[in-house]
């Protein structure tokens, strides 16, 4: 990494990027509004999620919760249901919490100061900067994944951007690249550049507006940057889920509010340690299931397996069905007996949505389960 960057390199980058954006910038719904609430929602949804995935969720979410007051007064289940399938559910919980804080602390009006925006749940420095710049016309740098990649290539930073000193240098570069006027357009432009041309694999360098000064391209190493740290081995874990019937209803439970998939509903079960030794496989699974269900379950039957990958591990979900005859068991806030046709009213994770599809369409079993 160069110790000294020529100021012309900053000016060239900003000038050519803005010119390119005015001709090729994407037409996105959150760019047709100056409403800080709508832009906030879009920025949270776009964290670790591609635009194409976000688009239908953004429209539906704002249709369900058109204003901060509507989001704050909604039940957690309704908010999670609107988020169902988008993943990283902590984002939805943080949005809900932040909306309630805005009602209490700011009288229902989205805060106008960077420090106040940054103080809200689920908002870090880059997201706060994007909202303040795009929605409020202020001037703050951003440094999301796309921007890090663009800057690492343009300035040819051959060190891990996760290192503290390298990250601080990237923040400094990001701030120096911000124009005095038009910072909102610049912020959208640099995100577009990373999302559409300066992509992680096979960057479209011939179309890039700053290619003539890109130091990584000069050295022919653009696809090797940013430098990645040592890869982590993704562990594989076994889980079990039980679809328990009592007459025409099925048992579901709510996950704890904090942690993985917090607040979502699921079919009861949990992690099971399968050491791979022959024999006792189903017995071990059924024993784990029975510990999670406070009634004696008759006639456990295997339904198959579901494969699902989370950020930090790969899951094999072993699904079993069973039935109980007891009449005990009242509905609580964390546990309910629900008719099959009403299950779609509750937010489930992607893996458990496959179980839900099986319940509604038994013929789908071969496609959904392996």
From TrEMBL:
PROSITE patterns: ENDONUCLEASE_III_2, NUDIX. The keyword Magnesium does not apply. Transmembrane segments: none annotated. Its EC number is 3.2.2.31. Its cofactor is [4Fe-4S] cluster. Residues 235-361 form the Nudix hydrolase domain. Binds 1 [4Fe-4S] cluster. Gene3D superfamilies: Helix-hairpin-Helix base-excision DNA repair enzymes (C-terminal) (1.10.1670.10), Hypothetical protein, domain 2 (1.10.340.30), Nucleoside Triphosphate Pyrophosphohydrolase (3.90.79.10). One of its GO terms (molecular function) is oxidized purine DNA binding. It holds the Pfam family NUDIX_4. Keywords: 4Fe-4S, DNA damage, DNA repair, Glycosidase, Hydrolase, Iron, Iron-sulfur, Metal-binding. InterPro entries: A/G_AdeGlyc_MutY (IPR005760), DNA_glycosylase (IPR011257), Endonuclease-III-like_CS2 (IPR004036), HhH-GPD_domain (IPR003265), HhH_base_excis_C (IPR023170), HhH_motif (IPR000445), MIG/MutY (IPR044298), MutY_C (IPR029119). GO terms for biological process: base-excision repair; mismatch repair. It is an enzyme of class 3 (hydrolase). It catalyses: Hydrolyzes free adenine bases from 7,8-dihydro-8-oxoguanine:adenine mismatched double-stranded DNA, leaving an apurinic site. Adenine glycosylase active on G-A mispairs. MutY also corrects error-prone DNA synthesis past GO lesions which are due to the oxidatively damaged form of guanine: 7,8-dihydro-8-oxoguanine (8-oxo-dGTP). This is Adenine DNA glycosylase. It comes from Candidatus Manganitrophus noduliformans. The gene is mutY.
